[in-house]
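hi! just following up on the protien thing from before. the input was this:
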Amino acid sequence: MFESLGMMFSIGLLGSLHCIGMCGGLVGALALGRPAIWWSGLFIYQLGRVTTYALFGLLVGLVGVSLSELGGTLLQHGLAILAGLFMIVFGLNLAGWLPDPLARLTAAVSQKLGLGRLAVSLTGEARLLGWYGMGMANGMLPCGLVYAALAMALAAGNALQASSMMAVFGLGTIPAMLLAPALLRRLTPALRGRAMQLAAIILIGLGVFTMLRGGHGNHAGHGQPMPASSMQHQH
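and the predicted 3d structure came back as:
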């Protein structure tokens, strides 16, 4: 359990540079449109995102429980391999070695939800509930990093654990998102590119590790001693 939570936090932390590129504009509009950064609003905005991720985790966790009853541990290991594949694909995209297949969809959903207009309307208001709702809506945007995390949560086969994993994943993205206004001003494109490539390599490594662990799990039952009751039944 703690290993899974630690991995989810690492995925969120390492992939958060991508979050700055995808969602940093919304954060910048919220923060930079005011005379001074309203840190309370920015923090409650992040909690809104984490809430959405946790709810998504609960949902896929319930689905995972049903799938586990149908397919057992074999299906869980298959889902772990799928999660690792998602992470590798996202890592390649994060480094700029693979186009983002969700870019157009994300922009379309953002426009459909009216996040840009909502961000502009909230810049002059100090309403925590509005900023919290903005964060929850932001958490619904299609994102490869979120889908990779959801795949891992789905493989957990436990609703509460899956929700906790997604909440911890969201917490991992908070540091970079809180610093997004400053990073958007000070981080040069070259430096940001190198940082994203380093994070991508680590994420790809985590993806490979997840796939290997899932594949190894498929054979975990081989070579185990037979239960005593089964041995007695054979005589």
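The chain has one domain: 2-29+40-217.
Residues 218-235 have pLDDT under 50 and may be disordered.
cheers
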